[in-house]
Amino acid sequence: MILMACSSPPPPPPPVPAQLPIAIQSARGIDIATDAGGVLNELTQNHVDFVARYYRGPESRWPPLSIGEARLLSSLGLKIVAVWESHSRTPGYFSYSSGFSDAMTAYRQAKAIGQPPGSAIYFAVDFNAQGRSFERIDEYFRGIQAGLAAASGRIPDYAVGVYGSGAVCDAVKAAGLARYAWLSNSIAWTGSIGYQDWDIRQGGRLPELSFNHDGDEARDDYGAFQVASGDFAAPLHFAPAQDVAQRTPQPGQSLAAAQLVQPGNQAAAARGRAAAAALPAM
């Protein structure tokens, strides 16, 4: 008699633990046109995480972010979001030259208040851009990239953010000209409804605050920072600005043809500075 060997089937593999989604860190903030120093009690008592404040041209009637205001906000644990706004509602203003000039001015103001390298400066496009306006906006942000590179010496110290409609945020980010997007509260503007690739989203007023402002929500890394009373503080995000390729294309040059600014090759920046110098005084 031949006996057939019998064996039991191998045991099933152990179950794989379910992968939990990574939690999205959210923050609650405001943007305000005036010095926030007079409303600090309301901010700290109502769980505001960040305040967005403006760098501005000398022609503006509104006060820009100052070093004293930045230090005061930081000392209370509030984060700061910096945004440049100048002629942002005028479609004809946007050009490579104005972008270069605005970037240089914003850079100087950022350094003056101690904004740490690696954090962001947002640049505002405050109208419902359509059609050929996108060509001007594209050139404007190319000028911003060149201006920040020239001001920093090589690799820009600051990341670029764009404020505007969903269509503007999408176009500028898709072209590689901004890392961060701040979606305007003007939801009737092109592409705004349903736009999800935002880092900051503007909303209505927070009802518990008595002063004029816009409410905002932010998620994960949105380019915020704090400053110290003496030396510069570290930016409140993890990826340094130089980790994203900062390209400096010339006027009319496609993004794909743009090159990184290399040591000793500042011709692009020099041409941009010359173009910016030719702008009429505002």
Explain how this protein is built.
- It is a single chain.
- The protein has 282 residues and is an alpha/beta fold.
- It has one domain: TIM Barrel.
- It has 6 helices and 8 strands.
- An 8-stranded mixed β-barrel has the order 1-2-3-4-5-6-7-8.
- Strand 4, helix 4 and strand 5 form a beta-alpha-beta unit.
- Helix 3 packs across helix 6.
- The termini are far apart.
For this entry, give a set of tags.
26% helix, 8 strands, alpha/beta, 282 residues, TIM Barrel, eight-stranded mixed β-barrel, disordered C terminus
Give a quick summary of the entry.
The protein starts with 25 loop residues before the first strand and ends in a 5-residue tail after the last helix. The chain has helices at residues 40-45, 67-75, 96-113, 133-152, 166-174, 267-277; strands at residues 26-31, 50-55, 79-84, 120-124, 159-164, 180-183, 200-202, 214-219. 26% of the residues lie in helices and 15% in strands.
Summed up, the domain count is 1
Number of strands: 8
CATH architectural name:
Alpha-Beta Barrel
* Count of helical regions: 6
- List low-pLDDT spans: 1-6, 16-21, 231-250, 252-282
Mean pLDDT: 82
- Oligomeric state of the chains present here: single chain
Label the structural class.
Answer: alpha/beta
Share of β-strand residues:
5-15%
Helix content: 25-40%
Inertia-based shape: globular
